[in-house]
Amino acid sequence: MSRVTCDLTISLDGFVAGPNQSLEEPLGAGGKNLHRWQFEEPEANAAERAGILAAGAYIMGRNMFAGPGAWAEEWRGWWGEEPPYHAPVFVLTHSPRRPLLMQGGTTFNFVSDGIESALAQAREAAGSKDVAIAGGAQTARQYLSAGLVDELRLHIAPVVLGAGERLLDGVANLKLVPTEVGGTRLVTHVRYQVVR
Amino acid sequence: MSRVTCDLTISLDGFVAGPNQSLEEPLGAGGKNLHRWQFEEPEANAAERAGILAAGAYIMGRNMFAGPGAWAEEWRGWWGEEPPYHAPVFVLTHSPRRPLLMQGGTTFNFVSDGIESALAQAREAAGSKDVAIAGGAQTARQYLSAGLVDELRLHIAPVVLGAGERLLDGVANLKLVPTEVGGTRLVTHVRYQVVR
After folding, report:
1. What mean pLDDT comes out for the span A103-126?
2. A178 vs B184: CB contact, 8 Å cut-off?
3. pTM score
4. In Å, how far is B177's CA from the nearest CA of chain A?
């Protein structure tokens, strides 16, 4: 059966975003520094970057799709007309909406009956490929807390943010085994198998 | 010149100890799990364990020497008559006290005039060897915040404690570059060079 994976970039002090997130600074103060490894070292981190987009279907939270702004029927996501997913994406929301077909194979499907329903739909869509929890942190926490993630891939940036949104706050009973480590001067990659 | 190093084992959510530290549970609830890598996999982690005790002099906080209990003149530390340091140890305290000579080359020296004085004395004692900040977390934070640490070696246990004492809370302006990563199923080792 396909696995459920979750890639997240966090600071050394455990934040996925800095304080004072806004439309201008969606990652909060200092939060952009978390992702330097993706933009400044694309080749050295090619395998990890590819891994983030290797799934057969994706699940994301409402805030990742729409940001902190108001939900508008005409909103088509942050990624332009050809999002990088090239696969079905299931967006958790309380506001049902018709699917949104984008260019390049990405379809945004809106799921309003819970995380388990979204996962069932994503599994069906992914076939033999993995299902990726694409974010944000709140959605990742929900799936981790429910014991529905098989592999957590943390990309630990050597950055101390001091405040912001913590990935693991409130996630209890998580048993992890690191299975692979690596990295560069801008990031440490650790793959964790979630033990049940 | 010799470097200043600091080894610390932390949970994946950034804690050096769990909640409710006490004499019975000095590492707090769940805190013992942080150190499984040292006790259950001594050979696989031999290099990292040796590195913790390779310095020419050590600095530790009062709480690491005496624990949360009362400070008593007759207290000789947690390590028995032959502590594992085999070198001068400088203990930060507000209560001056005569040096304590232990077996095997460890001497506990009590320093009451601040962290920079302790470092100067430790450097002098270490000669060409490194000076290690032995802990606890509060002492590590003081030296990190003051920009006095050259290499931070984190041993990240795949454990989520949920609450307790966080290593990096309040440490600002810390610039780090990971220089080496490795690990086992019980720990991920990351060496960070502190950039000034």
Report:
1. 97
2. yes
3. 0.91
4. 5
Q: What is the ipTM of this complex?
A: 0.88
Q: What is the CATH number of the domain that holds B187?
A: 3.40.430.10
On whether residue A150 sits in a domain, the answer given is yes
Tell me: pLDDT of A74 over 90: no
List CB contacts of B180: < 8 A, sequence separation 6 or more.
B189, B190, B191
Q: Give chain A's domain count.
A: 1
Cβ–Cβ contact B187 with A under 8 A: yes
Contact B177 A158 (CB under 8 A): yes
Can you give the residue range of the structural domain that contains A111? 4-17+30-68+83-195
Q: How many CB atoms lie within 10 A of CB B29?
A: 17
pLDDT in tens, B30-74: 999 999 999 999 999 999 999 999 999 999 999 899 876 656 778
- pLDDT for position A69: 63
Q: Tell me the C-alpha distance between A190 and B189, whole Å.
A: 10
